[in-house]
Amino acid sequence: MTGRKFNFETELDDMHRAVLSVLPEKLLDLTDIHATRTGLDALMSQMPAPELPEHISIEDVHVPGLDGDPDVLVRVYKPQSLPPEAPGLLWIHGGGMVLGSVDMDDAGSAAVADQHQCVVVSVDYRLAPENPFPAPLHDCYAALKWFAENANDLGASSKRIAIGGASAGGGLAAGTALMARDNGGPNLIFQLLVYPMLDHRNETPSSFGVTDTRVWNRDANLAGWAAYLNGAQPVSPYASPSIADDLSDLPPAYISVGTLDIFIDEDIEYAQRLSQAGIPVELHVYPGAFHGSNGFVAESPLSVRWAADQSAALETALNPAS
After folding, report:
1. Which member of 167, 240, 293, 300 is catalytic?
2. Is the pTM of this model over 0.85?
3. Which long-range contacts (CB under 8 A, 24 or more apart) does 6-13 make?
4. Whose CA is closest to 134, among 64, 63, 235, 61?
């Protein structure tokens, strides 16, 4: 199957096009993953450090890995005025399974903890290709188990934990939710899946749509999946949730994606299949948004609306009586 190629020059509005034009031409060229990591680190080092709320405590904790795996670093964000039995969110960063760290979401995680008066636990999972599947997923599941088992000490309720992530983090969140369901818990109340990376097959029309190396593109996606799966056969649905036969008994989900995102087709299909399995789903498709543009072009009216929609959905899930 093939699909149309997205044309960023004609299909983006002026604000999105202007921001895209200043990104490095090979920002997400994964021909050399280590070089790309170095380039991204250099780009991030040039940006001002995020201003984090003073009333949010931030602590790094090393938690036990799954079944003898190495310890997992998690970063805990906690409001000083946390209400009793507060909700929690396990957050998983993006990066195509091969890039990124817990540091990249400091500002967002602190903001979520503040806005929703919840405990946020962000996972610094191991990356492929050095640590292919199941290592990243096992780290996320280990973090979820630790969160649930230590919720009381953190000031949260083990019965009010949601899971979320963006891009690869969204795929890992969906896979972790499947693993938690199949292993008797921990029980989750919600899935926040932001343009999730769900399908290793790369066969949808939109999976052919992006070749621009300034954003997440087909070649990068193929390289990310190859590094993550490392030739594993058969592919596990925990790694590639789109191939899961049974999506029943999962927590309610919120899925958001742009019309110019390589993942739009697989995300819409996953939302449909969740709904067909009886899972409450809220799906948002934003016209003219590319992968990650809600962060790159955060001040655009479209991104502001995206952020407001996402925050409202998370608030309803975490604090339904508010």
Report:
1. 167
2. yes
3. 6/209, 6/210, 6/260, 6/290, 8/212, 8/215, 8/260, 8/290, 11/260, 11/288, 12/260, 12/288, 12/290, 13/288, 13/300, 13/302
4. 235
Whether the predicted pLDDT of 3 surpasses 80:
no
Q: Is 261 a catalytic residue?
A: yes
Residue type, 112: V
pLDDT at position 43, please?
80
What confidence score (pLDDT) does residue 181 get? 98
124, 261, 265, 267: which is the annotated catalytic residue?
261
Distance CA 266, CA 120 (A): 27
Could you confirm whether 69 is annotated as catalytic? no
Q: Is pLDDT above 80 for 182?
A: yes
Question: How far is residue 13 from each of residues 1, 28, 240, 290, 316, measured CA to CA in Å?
Answer: 29, 22, 33, 11, 31
Catalytic residue, candidates 122, 291, 293, 303: 291
Average pLDDT, integer, range 284-295: 96
Gap between the Cα atoms of 90 and 109, Å rounded: 10
Helical spans, DSSP H, in the chain: 8-11, 14-21, 33-45, 106-116, 135-149, 151-154, 168-182, 218-229, 264-276, 293-296, 301-318
Pairwise pLDDT comparison (46 vs 113), residue with the higher score: 113
Closest CA to 186 of 150, 215, 158, 151: 158
Token pair in block for residue 18: 């202007």
Look up 167 and say whether it is catalytic: yes
Using left for φ > 0, alpha for ψ between -120 and 50, and beta otherwise, residue 288 falls in: left
β-strands 56-63, 86-92: how paired? unpaired
> In the predicted model, is pLDDT for residue 305 greater than 70?
yes
